[in-house]
Amino acid sequence: MSTVDPFDIANTPLDLVDRSSPETGPSGKPLVRTEEGIITEGSKVTWNMKSILWALPQPVLVAGSTLLVAAIVVNEWGGEYYGIWALIVSIFSTPLLLIAERFWYKKKSWLLKPDEMLEDVFWLASGALLFGPLVTGLYRTPVSEGFRALRDMAPLHIEFQPTTVLGLIGAGLIIRFTSSFFYYWLHRIQHESLFWWRMHATHHHITKMSAMRGGRTHPFERLSLGLAGPIAAALMGASDEVFVVSAAFGMWNGRFNHANLPMVSMPVWDWFFATAQQHHCHHAHERRQADSNYGCDIIFWDRVFGTYCGDAEVGATGAGKRVRLSIKDQLMLCFYSDKRLKDL
């Protein structure tokens, strides 16, 4: 296999990247080149009071919000509108983290401009219109109808329909771990095959991290990679309540993972659940980091199959030449020729 400079990847085909010999420092740990040109050992974590405090918010708020949603569903807090309250708790992560980014940003260069935020709203809205009915039940789409039809057939003759708070959380996590196994391999294939990369490239052509950026997903990818969770839930006969609790976990964790905050991975938690520190590596321009941490909610499978990256440092983010693409280009990426795809 030909070797390439890990920092010079703009025009490097996916199958020519040498992932086996990263540039290393005196201690033997991989190096990371920051946006300022500083070269540092990427895996180094200095544990002090600040890092301890920044390791707490993600596990505390993700677990807390999931618990709260389960309690709302079980106790029907809010009467007939309990489903709406559960949805409000689930989506509250977005405004909360966007405000936090303005005060405690990880990188000033990642702060979004108004037009960039409007673009993210477009992507979030497109995803909500397609998958929203799976959580709210306010209207129907082909995805929601297919999900319920598959569940009603119960091909595995399993029913995940607990009625307690802990039961709902347990069922939701089982579905997450199960679906993430398939998600992991689908996601990994997208990074290792240029043909499938074109469907995923939209999500990686972001040069800034922010809480809303998790929604930057091509519709074709939503109908492939994004269906892993709903299909797993349907095959297991999961009730609407289980899916709502599972979705709450996914929404909070997903927003945290893309947020422009100086988060640090909490030990033990980060053996099983994906963290912002891990996912920032996945969005790095450097391919050694980008081709790792495929689990966006569950990191366990990356540890099992050897694609885990625990770097605390990340340089520039984005794919290719790291230029901002128009919405048209983002939607058309999957139709572009190989040459044009690699030239962007």
List the SSEs and their pairings.
Blueprint: E1 31-33, E2 39-41, H1 49-55, H2 57-75, H3 82-91, H4 93-104, H5 114-136, H6 142-153, H7 165-192, H8 194-204, H9 219-222, H10 228-235, H11 240-258, H12 269-272, H13 276-282, H14 287-290, H15 300-305, H16 327-332, H17 338-343
Antiparallel strand pairs: 1-2
Q: Would you write up a description of this structure?
A:
This protein is mostly helical. The protein has one domain (51-343). Helices cover 54% and strands 2% of the residues. It contains 17 helices and two strands. It has helices at 49-55, 57-75, 82-91, 93-104, 114-136, 142-153, 165-192, 194-204, 219-222, 228-235, 240-258, 269-272, 276-282, 287-290, 300-305, 327-332, 338-343; strands at residues 31-33, 39-41. The chain has a two-stranded antiparallel sheet with strand order 1-2.
